[in-house]
Write a structure and sequence with these properties.
It is a single chain. The protein is 45% helix and 13% strand. The chain has helices spanning 2-28, 70-85, 110-121, 125-134, 138-147, 152-155, 162-175, 208-211, 223-231, 255-263, 269-279, 303-309, 315-321, 354-392, 424-431, 441-457, 459-467, and strands at residues 60-66, 88-91, 94-97, 102-108, 190-197, 202-205, 240-243, 288-292, 329-336, 410-417. α10 (255-263) packs across α11. The longest helix has 39 residues, at 354-392.
């Protein structure tokens, strides 16, 4: 009996000691806090206007948007990059790859892994992105990290949660501890990683336009945390948190914001964007910014373009402000990895299973919103073509100008979507791949090849390539 008492007492001491260690470690675990700045010059290089200073041709403005959709989206957008790398064009009298002319990539969720890796490492993506990420069981490895006893102490902290652990994992396997200061600007495209501010219900983009108002440094911020925020699906992930230092630096609201709040109607897109941006100046009310999946506010990455252009009266003013007054070819490639819902319950008389309805509750509004966003972009780009043409062809009516006229502007809206695959069996297979971070290597290959084939079959893409010969 005495022996058992000694053993029992020893076990209790060991457990108490372990709990003390866990508590102490939990108190020290904390997510990476964004750094405060004194002047907005610290984020100057992350403005879109600086891309005009790159060595890319003034003739063409080429923008890519990468949608959400887990590894399916990452693989499809990767296939587009490979196809652009294999496409030779002549721009400004120089023969080069079309990939070298990409100015901006706006991405969401799964697509942000591809865009961020390319922005950091350039052509290295063509060599090692598949083994490092696309062909990896990321989902299984993350599940192991989350249940591993070695991480329990950190996860017990009030200031360290699932997404913080996930960001560290992505740093280890993919981003190598790189920060936004490591993006190869302006040689490589400006990378616009999009998340959703759940307090304001709005898109939050990791660029100077959003970091300057909160007086926060972007160059020192880990890329892995931005990508995690962009992909942080509510439930499996927790929010990524930013501290708001508004009012502690020399930031002033842009003129377009002040004018919009003063003159525009609340129903306009510009007014709403101005109201949201000005909200960040209230550091007491919005002391911390909580970010979730970018797909909640825009699953295509297209809203970044629409919102940016809405800052001014028309595209001509915006192009001039960006230093792109000589640009007369505007191309946007929208990579949409939307899957397909299989409502098996539609054949049954009883109520739909809760597991099915949970997925549909999120996918239905996202798909509907994405459709409307793309339709809005189609209409806007037609207006942009007319506006730029009118500015270049002074004294002539736009209707009388032929696309072959030297002064005329040309626009290209190129969609790369899985539902454009002509073979029904292949289309059904790829669209029914899970929105997860685990795919078979052969499915990654099929997605990559599908991107190339869809681009090859696109009339607008072929017209762009032909116009650049």
């Amino acid at each position: 009996m005495r022996y058992l008492k000694i053993v029992y007492t020893s076990v209790l001491k060991i457990i108490a000691g372990l709990m003390a260690v866990l508590a102490l470690t939990a108190c020290t675990a904390h997510y990476t806090v964004n750094t405060q700045i004194a002047t907005v010059q610290a984020v100057e290089r992350y403005y879109l206007r600086n891309q005009a200073e790159s060595q890319k041709s003034e003739e063409l403005l080429l923008i890519l948007t990468f949608s959400g959709g887990g590894t399916r989206a990452a693989a499809l957008s990767y296939g587009v990059l490979k196809a652009l790398a294999d496409t030779q064009v002549v721009v400004g009298g120089k023969k080069l790859r079309l990939l070298d002319e990409v100015d901006v990539i706006s991405s969401v969720s799964g697509g942000s892994f591809t865009s961020a890796y390319y922005g950091l490492f350039g052509d290295r993506i063509l060599k090692d992105f598949e083994p490092k990420f696309l062909n990896r069981d990321v989902e299984g490895e993350l599940a192991f990290e989350l249940i591993s006893p070695s991480n329990w102490s950190k996860l017990a902290s009030s200031y360290y949660d699932r997404s913080d652990l996930v960001a560290e994992y992505f740093d280890e396997i993919l981003f190598e501890g790189k920060t936004f200061g490591d993006f190869q600007l302006p040689r490589l495209p400006l990378i616009a990683i999009n998340a959703t501010d759940i307090a304001l219900g709005s898109q939050f983009t990791f660029l100077a336009d959003q970091f300057a108002p909160i007086c926060a440094d972007l160059s020192s911020y880990p890329v892995s945390r931005a990508v995690t925020a962009s992909a942080a699906v509510p439930g499996p992930f927790s929010t990524i948190v930013l501290k708001n230092y508004a009012g502690t630096c020399d930031y002033r609201l842009p003129e377009w914001v002040a004018r919009s709040l003063r003159e525009d109607q609340p129903v306009t897109r510009r007014y709403q964007n101005a109201r949201i941006l000005s909200s960040y100046l209230d550091a007491e009310k919005y002391a911390y910014i909580h970010l979730f999946d970018g797909g909640l506010s825009d699953n295509l990455g297209v809203r970044f373009i629409l919102n940016y252009n809405a800052q001014r009266e028309n595209i001509r003013e915006q192009m001039h402000a960006l230093g792109l007054q000589n640009t007369h070819k505007l191309a946007i490639i929208v990579v949409n990895a939307r899957g397909q819902v299989q409502p098996h319950f539609a054949k049954k008389r009883e109520s739909a299973p809760i597991i099915d309805t949970i997925g549909l509750i999120s996918s239905i509004p996202l798909d509907r919103y994405s459709f409307d966003t793309l339709d809005l972009l189609r209409r806007d780009i037609e207006g942009w073509q007319k506006s730029i043409t009118a500015a270049r062809c002074k004294g002539a009516t736009v209707a009388s100008i032929s696309p072959e006229d030297e002064c005329g502007a040309r626009t290209y809206l190129i969609e790369v979507s899985l539902d454009q695959i002509p073979d029904e069996a292949e289309r059904q297979h790829l669209m029914n791949l899970p929105t997860s971070f685990k795919l078979k290597a052969k499915d990654v290959d099929r997605l990559r090849d599908a991107a190339r084939d869809i681009l090859s079959a696109s009339d607008d893409y072929q017209r762009l390539v032909s116009d650049l010969q």
